[in-house]
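Regression test case RT-17, inverse folding.

Input:
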């Protein structure tokens, strides 16, 4: 398999050339083993790729992505980006769902075609999170959920 090479801009605005070995395209993400990190496994968001190097965009089925939608409290419920919580206890999930709905996201209990975000808690199964990524969902940690709700920025926790 050919290396996938690109310039990546992290959420701090820092650019760095990356080369991935044994990579896979998973919805809005690319996973692989990062040569710059001594072959450590890494996950990169496609919308943060500034450019592909050496024609590598031709290796992907969908190389270019837009950033995730921002919460919108003024939008009709049917038009709000959807979020699903997994891996949380019932009480904590209820707290998060209330705060999230108030911030302008539509909370759903099951996977839907319009699902945009999955917030993965401490007990979220890795297979479920990987499946959500492949389906085209953005993965949000509980730690970074407040930033998404307040500013609409989806923190890039893998590389920052």
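Golden output:
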């Amino acid at each position: 398999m050919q290396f996938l090479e690109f310039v990546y801009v992290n959420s701090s605005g820092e650019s760095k050339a990356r080369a991935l070995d044994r990579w896979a395209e998973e919805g809005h993400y690319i996973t692989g083993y990062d040569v710059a990190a001594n072959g450590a496994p890494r996950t990169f968001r496609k919308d943060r790729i500034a450019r592909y190097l050496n024609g590598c965009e031709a290796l992907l089925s969908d190389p270019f992505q837009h950033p995730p939608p921002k919460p919108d409290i003024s939008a009709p419920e049917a038009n709000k980006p959807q979020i699903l919580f997994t891996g949380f206890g019932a009480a904590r999930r209820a707290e998060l769902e209330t705060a999230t709905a108030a911030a302008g996201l539509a909370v759903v209990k099951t996977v839907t075609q319009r699902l945009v975000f999955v917030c993965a808690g401490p007990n979220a199964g890795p297979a479920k999170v990987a499946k959500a990524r492949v389906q085209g969902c953005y993965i949000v940690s509980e730690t970074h959920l407040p930033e998404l709700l307040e500013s609409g920025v989806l923190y890039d926790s893998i590389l920052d």
